[in-house]
Specification:
By secondary structure, this protein is α/β, with parallel strands linked by helices. It has 23 helices and 14 strands. α8 packs parallel to α15. Its EC number is 4.2.1.12.
């Protein structure tokens, strides 16, 4: 058993040290919550009657307190492919609960919006703040105090972080995340990317593009590229909050149902105990493990925002300095599209999370001794699940089944995790170097400044960007417009790069888990709104972005300039009713949350 890497040990100790006050306050609160949890035998009969009225098949058991009651918080809808399978989950989970003398109820539901549907549309400006709404919805669901454990049904981008934040405020209860798995693989990812770039160049029409996209996103289940949704599932494994190995088992299979059943049975076993509550499981080491998994697999850049936000909800202080220092020693052991050719189904078939966790543990690159929802430490998650007849079993993973996708930690694709902090007189931002060829890690060129992403496409089509250029898209931060993803920029910038130009993107917005081959400084903070450095750039200013040295700067003298005027808040598609979230949001490095900021967390 290898000793823990000294840099990881150092970062962990630093996080523990700077979190002492907030973590202690959080744990004290959770102890008080556990102590004052109501004895339902003493709760008003009227209250209980309201809670039991809808549970026709379980009323008798609930009336006599026969066993624990599990609260299901679901993010089901049938517009979002990843969440469509959840429609039937509650009825099955109630059956699984009865098998072990427990009951289950849908405690509440949360929104579940799809960034894939809203990409480039006005609705994307609600996306980041939907995480706060989901956390609040989870809080409302659990406020009834009728539950002994929590099953969290969620997969996609803001949904898992939102469920996590909400569940952590009820951290005196045990909770397990229950995924539903990815859709089967569609057309090859390179083909999808090729058609997108052809469409950006005007060489194919909408019919060809739509046919290609529907060949990729074609059935219930999570999208198969390694974006934020699948990075969420990876993190839940690294934190020990799933039944081991359940992240990437497809919907509708016997193995999927066996894992769902095990989740309910395990929650029933944990209910009423204090040994493996959510508050105790999600500690500093678990947060560090989530970051390590993100780096080792080249996961979504969105988690540079979500991990600090989730950590704050547990009283843990984690920032981009911590993430960047971890990245310096965590090797990249996986290449999954958009960082590689194969998707998450191929990743799972090659060894998946069991292989990744086994490699990290064997090299001392992750915390083994975390408290998981399962019966042991993280070691259990280094195996893969299977069926022996009708019985759920776990087996050793063995060697990588595809070394183009998964490599040993001793012979990685890159020696570092490829999530780099860049900073300078333009602020602090994130650079996902694992997706970018090394010869493009440094870009220095005159910039072209845009106030929104919609203005980039006309300039591209007019040939105005056919040169070495740093494209700056500003006023895209949390307080400006909710920090939308700017993924629509990828095809035109990719075309410019393929034409031989030196191209980069600098923005205070997000670029998503589908960030690809174009070098980019994203999440730049301070944001442009209110006079941040990006607001003082002008067309033609020379900007330098370098992942190797961690530089994000301009040669222009910004101190002598006036900031560009802040844009007026947009309305429509419900954006006006989210003004509270924009006005109260904190910076990207703290998680871009209005709720956490106003709660003083």
């Amino acid at each position: 058993m290898s000793e823990l890497n000294p840099v990881i040990a150092k970062v962990t100790e630093r996080v523990i040290d700077k979190s002492r006050g907030t973590r202690s306050a959080y744990l004290d609160l959770m102890e008080r919550e556990a102590d004052r949890a109501p004895d339902r035998s003493q709760v008003s009969c009227s209250n209980l009657a309201h809670a039991f009225a809808g549970a026709l098949e379980d009323q008798a058991a609930m009336k006599v307190g026969r066993g624990p009651n599990i609260g299901i918080v679901t993010s089901y809808n049938d517009m979002l492919s990843a969440h469509q399978p959840y429609g039937r989950y509650p009825e099955r989970m109630k059956v699984y609960a009865r098998e072990v003398g427990a009951t289950a109820q849908v405690a509440g539901a949360t929104p579940a919006m799809c960034d894939g549907v809203t990409q480039g549309e006005d609705g994307m400006e609600l996306s980041l703040f939907s995480r706060d709404v989901i956390a609040l919805s989870t809080g409302v669901a659990l406020s009834h105090a009728m539950y002994d454990g929590v099953a969290l049904l969620g997969i996609c981008d803001k949904i898992v972080p939102g469920l996590m934040i909400g569940a952590l405020r009820f951290g005196h209860l045990p909770a397990i995340f229950v995924p539903s798995g990815p859709m089967p693989s569609g057309i090859a990812n390179k083909e999808k990317q090729r058609v997108r770039q052809l469409y950006a160049e005007g060489k194919v029409g909408r019919d060809e593009l739509l046919a290609s996209e529907m060949g990729s996103y074609h059935s219930p289940g999570t999208c198969t590229f390694y974006g934020t949704a699948n990075s969420n599932q990876m993190m839940m494994e690294m934190m020990g909050l799933h039944i081991p190995g359940s992240a990437f088992i497809q919907p509708g299979t016997k193995l999927r149902q066996a894992l769902d059943r095990a989740a309910v049975h395990r929650l029933a076993a944990l209910a009423g105990t204090r040994e493996r509550t959510t508050a105790k499981c999600v500690d500093e080491k678990a947060i560090i493990n989530a970051a390590i998994g993100l780096l080792a697999t080249g996961g979504s850049t969105n988690h540079a925002i979500h991990i600090p936000a989730m950590a704050r909800a547990a009283g843990v202080q984690f920032d981009w300095d911590d993430l960047s220092e971890l990245s310096s020693v965590v090797p990249l052991v996986a290449r999954v599209y958009p960082n590689g050719a194969g998707d998450v189904n191929h990743f799972h078939e090659a060894g998946g999370m069991g292989y990744v966790i086994g490699e990290l543990l064997s090299e001392g690159l992750a915390h083994r001794d975390i408290l998981t929802v399962w019966e042991s430490d993280l070691s259990a998650y280094a195996n893969e699940p299977g069926l022996d007849g009708e019985d759920l079993v776990w087996r050793e993973v063995g060697a990588s089944g595809d070394t183009e996708m998964l490599r040993p930690a001793s012979d990685p694709f890159q020696p570092d995790g490829g999530m780099r902090l860049v900073q300078g007189n333009l602020g602090r931002g994130c650079f996902k170097s694992s997706a970018v060829e090394r010869e493009r890690w440094t870009i220095e060129a005159p910039c072209r400044v845009f106030e929104d992403q919609a203005s980039v496409a006309p300039a591209f089509k007019a040939g105005e960007l056919d040169r070495d250029v740093v494209v700056v898209v500003r006023f895209q931060g949390p307080r400006a417009n909710g920090m939308p993803e700017l993924h629509k920029l990828t095809p035109p910038l990719g075309v410019l790069q393929d034409r031989g130009y030196r191209v980069a993107l600098v923005t205070d917005g997000r670029m998503s888990g589908a960030s690809g081959k174009v070098p980019a400084a994203i999440h730049v903070t301070p944001e442009a709104l209110g006079g941040g450095p990006l607001s003082k750039l002008r067309d033609g200013d020379v900007v330098r972005l370098c992942a190797a040295t961690g530089e994000l700067s301009t040669t222009a003298d910004l101190t002598a300039r006036e900031a560009a005027p802040d844009p007026s808040p947009a309305s429509g598609v419900g954006r006006e009713i989210f003004a509270m979230f924009r006005n109260m949001a904190d910076g990207a490095e703290k998680g871009g949350s209005a709720m956490l900021a106003t709660a003083g967390l």
